[in-house]
Amino acid sequence: MKITRANRCNSGYGIVETLIVIIVISGLIAVAVDRYQRVIWEAKKTALHAELLNLRQSILLFKITKGRYPKDLKELITAEFIMPYKDGVIRGKYLEPYSMDKDMNILDPFDMPYAYDPSNGKVWSQKRGFEGW
User: Fold this and answer.
1) pLDDT number for residue 38
2) Which has fewest Cβ within 10 Å: 43, 48, 60, 120?
3) What does the pLDDT average to over 72-94?
4) Parent domain of 24
5) Phi, psi (degrees; rounded to nearest 5) at 88
6) What span, in angstroms and rounded, lies between the C-alpha atoms of 20 and 28?
7) Residue 110 confidence (pLDDT) above 90
8) SS3 string of the chain?
9) Domain total for the chain?
């Protein structure tokens, strides 16, 4: 059988076509990864906002029940409260943290310990750009 030019052209994809496909797929992957990272960043910001509200409410509850601010955030995890409710009482901890490091420091969604001032009960994130939240 004689190989003609038409037979060679129909024999399969060439290097150029394969490279074009690889470039298009790489571009789609780059866009998807960028979008994923932005979604993760927004989720961490939302979680940080919710956790700061939760921490501040726990500190306020501690101040109301104990008459002082906690000496550190670890005290919110270890101390318990008892409050009357209807026909019984409620017992619990002031805070059940989402994540902690090995030293029992409460971590924010960016895996950094929260900063806390026991003189005025203020708590904030140490993540750059979120200190004022």
Assistant:
1) 94
2) 120
3) 90
4) 14-124
5) -140, -155
6) 13
7) yes
8) CCCCHHHHHCCCCCHHHHHHHHHHHHHHHHHHHHHHHHHHHHHHHHHHHHHHHHHHHHHHHHHHHHCCCCCCHHHHHHCEEEEEECCEEEEEECCCCCCECCCCCEECCCCCECEEECCCCEEECCCCCCCCC
9) 1
pLDDT at residue 84, rounded to an integer: 87
Please determine, for residue 10, whether its predicted confidence score (pLDDT) is greater than 70. no
pTM: 0.74
The answer to whether residue 133 sits within a structural domain is no
Distance CA 51, CA 59 (A): 12
Looking at the DSSP bridge assignments, the partners of residue 92 are 81
Residue 9, pLDDT score? 55
Sign of the CA dihedral with 89 first, then 95, 101, and 103 last: negative
What is the C-alpha separation between 98 and 36, in angstroms, rounded? 23
Average pLDDT over residues 8-23: 78
Q: Which residue, chain included where needed, has tokens 């026909």?
A: 87
Exposure b/e, 55-67, CB count within 10 A at least 16 = b: beebbeebeeeee
In a domain, residue 5? The reply is no
Query: What mean pLDDT comes out for the span 6-17?
Result: 68
